[in-house]
Amino acid sequence: MEGVVVSARRDGSTITVSVISDKQGHFGFPANRLEPGHYALAIRAVGYELEGAAAADLKAGSTATVDIQLRRTTNLASQLTSAEWLMSMPGTDEQKASLMGCVNCHTLERPVRSTYTADELTKVISRMMGYASGSEPIRPQRRVNAEARAANPEKYRKLADYIASINLSRESTWEYPLKTLPRPTGRATRVIITTYGLPRPAIMPHDVLVDEHGTAWYSDFGEQYFGKLDPKTGKVTEFPVPKPKPDYPEGMLDLEEDQGGNFWLGMMFQGAIARFDPRSEQFKVYTAPDVFNDDGMKKSQERQREVTVRYGVDGKVWTTEDDGEIDRVDLSTGKYERFQPLKNYAGQPPYQIYGIAADSRDNLYFAENVHSFIGRIDAKTGEAKVYPTPTPHAYPRRVQMDAQDRLWFGEYTGNRLGMFDTKTEKFQE
Fold this sequence. Notes:
alpha+beta
């Protein structure tokens, strides 16, 4: 069988190495990827499972050979990814798109396995809307304004009706065939994947940066921890992040490294940004003032989600807010300055900024999703301009500024990579 993922993990290790079988069913692990020891083997091939346990004992200077036998699974549904559930379930693109937000907290297996009726689902969905985006089934986090968001369950009737039509509320099994994605073939099988287990099941690694020493640093989307991983040993070290607002949901989103080797975190519901010095292993937190940060988290989504740092230019850091607002923090004083770049924009709210970056002069550029444009704030005058993406409804997000002051961004629904030249004000996609 071609395209079977074969994984090997040594006893006592948190590191798993995976390879993929070729069209003859052969697979191999390079000698420099596995140390001597006893290895448990696992496979991933949707529709199949191992015929009994598989293991190998690897000795120094020798090769271990193992034949793996597969059998067809009797529980295909438990192997499907959320993408395969979307492929399988009947419904329009609009109906399926309404489920995309579900995967922020859990897979689509949860709603399709449920037995709730449409009437019950209106209440279930209403309750789920009261959870913060850094939630997961084993660690739900209630929003401060959970009751307000959960008001009027009937507004979720349309979604509830759709889920009830594809779940197990009427039948003991699904009335539609379960579809699967094809396994890798050809060049796609020539790959080695290394995964590193983290110490707690609730960790939600979100952003990852690799420093000049090869150490991987990550933000935790659901808890107040900042972590680092040594890829050579698999050792994980976590640093507790301060909680300016202890009663609010926890978790960090954006992670950036500045010119001095410090790391910056957007603290979402905690209403702040944090700087971490890897040398002293200490945090400095810049909390938004009460006028910006009283009940802001009650209003809608997460505050202080992303940061961009070129503090060597003017000693200031940019950070995003909700509703199309952006703040700039003076690091010498901790003072916040509020910008509303979309105040005079002709488009109607809501607005969502997802991705910010500064050029070499600290002018800020940002990606706006709902109306699909790149925006600019002049660092000296505060003047704002917008540049619509050539592809309508492209949903630009996750921007990066390169050394030539070119802004690169993903087009989330445009299926393209975009580049905006800040000097010529021209797009390429």
